[in-house]
Amino acid sequence: MIAYLARRLVYMVFTLLAVSVVSFLIVQSAPGDFAEIYAARKAAAGAIISQAEIENLRVSLGLDQPWHIQYWRWISNIVLHNDWGTSWEWKRPVGEVIWERMPLTLGIAFSTLFFMYAISIPVGIYSAVRRYSIGDHAVSIVGYLGLATPNFLLALVLMYLTQKYFGQSVGGLFSPKFQNEPWSWAKLVDLLQHLAVPVIVLGMSGTAFLIRAMRAAVLDELDKMYVLSAKASGLSPMKLLVRYPVRMALNPIASTLGWRLTYVISGAPIVGYVMALPDTGPLFLHSLLDQDMLLAGALIFIYCALTIIGTLVSDLLLVALDPRIRLE
Amino acid sequence: MSIRGQNGYRRAPAIIVTAASLTAFGLAGAQAACPTVADPQGLTGQWNGQVEVEDLAAKNVKLTYTQNPIFDKDVESGKLPRVEDRLPAEPLVLLPYESCGVYGGTLNGVARAPESGTSDILSWRQVALVRIGDDLKTIQPNVARSWKWADDYKSITFELRKGHKWSDGQPFTADDVVFFFEDIVKNKEMFADTTTEWGLNPTAEKIDETHVKISFDEPFPGLLTYMATSGSYFTTFAPKHHFAQYLPKYNQNADADAKAAGFENWVKAFDSYYDKWKDAETLTAHALTVPTLESHIIEVEPDTQHRVFKANPYYFKVDSQGQQLPYIDHHYERFLNVELQMLSIMNGEVDYKAQGLGLPEYPTLKEKEASGKFTVRMANGSIGPAMAFNITHNDKKLRSVYSDLRFRQAISHALNRAEINDVIYFGMGKPSQALPAQLSFATEADANYMIDYDVAKAGALLDDMGMKKGADGMRTYPDGSPFTILWEYSTQMATPEFVKLVSDQLQAVGLNVNIKELTSAATRENAKAETSDINMEWDVPYEPTLIADISLYTPYYSEISPLFGVKWKQWWISNGASGEEPSAWAKRMFEIAKEWKTVVPGSDRYMELGRELVKLNLENMTIVGTVGELPKPIIVSNRLHNVKPELGTAHFNFGYSYAFRADQWYIQE
Q: Most C-beta atoms within 10 A of its C-beta, which of B31, B177, B525, B623?
């Protein structure tokens, strides 16, 4: 087990390094650079920017250097000094900018994961056991709708509804009046109200998918001989269900945890952007559009790291759940 | 034209007070009366909407200063001096537009990100030595009480206010102005290429605590106009008592300190603390320690969602009743993406917004006026897209066509501007030739020059060039080979609808047009390389900007995205050593531009040169215009008071709401 873990961790480091090169190259390959885009933005606002100013900016940011030198400076500072550089757009350290939004990003991601599993596992079991009942059909219809609706559309619709009927402020996780208040009960309630929409939006299609997966897996197990013999030997139906078919059916659910985390993390920027959540989503998109390289690079890096960790966790969970799995 | 340099200190009390108004003012008592712009009650001075202490003295008015109650506690506890000790001995007295306001409230604004929609919000609090009057023409005192030009316009002396203080209570003096020019602008380690916006080689010299002289190698009469308009975002002073500690000249440990704080060297550290864009200076926790003269100072550590500013207890202005300004406690700036900005405006979460709004948003905004509790003001404003054919195209054959005046005139006649105005701008603009907006030296006839829609005339001009129609009805080069215009545009300059509509109109006179959308970075590259057929990035069409930088109205019109004539300009700058010799008219334009920098704005010679430049541009059809006088919507919350009844152009080049005196706005539900 320890050897297995160690091997996996070493692979992870190499994967991350490869990812860092690729992400740096991808951000670099877009036409123009931060200096150019900064000038364009200023010009669009009506300011006059001279070529000399653009060049000054380029030199001071090191953008006049070839990409591998820029990359080396970036990665070596991270590895050697844990220095992620300064965001050009926000003029603050990258670490500080991201950290300001990371807790909420993770909060939303894990609330969504929790929401997905808390709904999909019991509902999936229910619709397997009560196959072709009205409840099963209802769940299936809602599930397919959930699968088919794009995230951002659902976000817009829900946002419109909450704004129109509940008078919630647009975007963000707090109403403006709570933004700078210290934490209080009212502020927490306000936060939870705002959190519900993004969690539902992000979790919707994942939940729908998991319900289908859970239902199919439980159905597979229910017809097996061991279930029949357990039933025949007089085990109570609930005890039987939870102890045998459900445990087996959790196997595919656990093995996809890694994807789920990836899915939530990668879906988050779109939803975050549409709803102006103070998570890393809008920050990520802006940093890409503005070619704020250090910030964009750091975010891609973190997203990938989370994905890789998610995969590792799901593999470990699988080992724990299924004794048949070998580590070799 | 009233943009004029000021000769002589404005000491002579040129106030004429009628006996009746004086009595009215006197009878009402100092505190009760509130002279306003609408009803000055006889309290007037040299400038519109503001008076100085000597104007009050001339009327025997003695103001008793009062303050915002949020400062009461700090004054009681001794943390803050009393209001009369915080104000300068000579505060600037503002006449509010409607009424003397009440203290309190938060002014809410929305932007996309720092330096992306924030100039508008910065202009609520910014101050500079001088200000542009709300007529968008007159230069008026602000931080400076008065100024005096030298006869040759090579130097100017500013008089500051006695007892003026930074937001930390330290005195603001001539040293802070000298520090800006001598230690920041002219610091070669910070700026390898000294920024030229302050004129050639500026030198600042302290005369006494309240007098400072700024000199230049060449006459620079446009200085005040620049400082009051687009230059108002970068103030010509900096708190020496704060920033000196980061410079090796004043602190021998500056470099070591910078390294200890994690910077490469002192330059990088200074660069991170100081920014000429006052907006970019308030982005980090360090901003909390930087003193300012602005009406509001940053209150909490800024983050990626918002910035909060609170009233500056040392702000140097009072209203005509003696209440210290600003009235509004807080400025709240929220960062939202553009789509959500509209939603939050409609939701009534925004009190004022001009930047980033245009005619396309107008119908939606108008519809939501009631529910969003705001009013849409339509300020006269911008001009529509303009197109410049590349007269100096690299391709010889294309150049032979585009450099033919008849071709460009044909294009102007082929445009159905009324249709463009109706389809794209709801008919709210006015068909117009390409002209900088609201020029004092341009006439109605200039705006109408060759804008009549006349397909026959256009056809005749093209026929005359030898560009006959082929078998397919499309025109060819004079030698009979197929001719196509490749129109590369970016959405920053024009909408796809506009480009489609105009190219259909060109097709109608037999000109083949291929449309291609590119990023603005790509169109700029092509423009610089002179390989594009049509260039559209003609910025900055307002007079104050031209006063500061006339090269925007002569080839190549834009340094980062030239319209045409890159090699002409090279030739002119290098005295003929490189580039290509410009046409005679372009040469004349360069000569005008050279002389323009030395003439006093508004003088006879200024008007003459301006007229000649307009004429040269029109007669050579350098830029083909489409629609002008496009109104621009401005959102004003119904709870916001003292907003000028008729707002003028809100644009970067006039410093957004700087001219409309946001420091005397107040909030009352």
A: B177
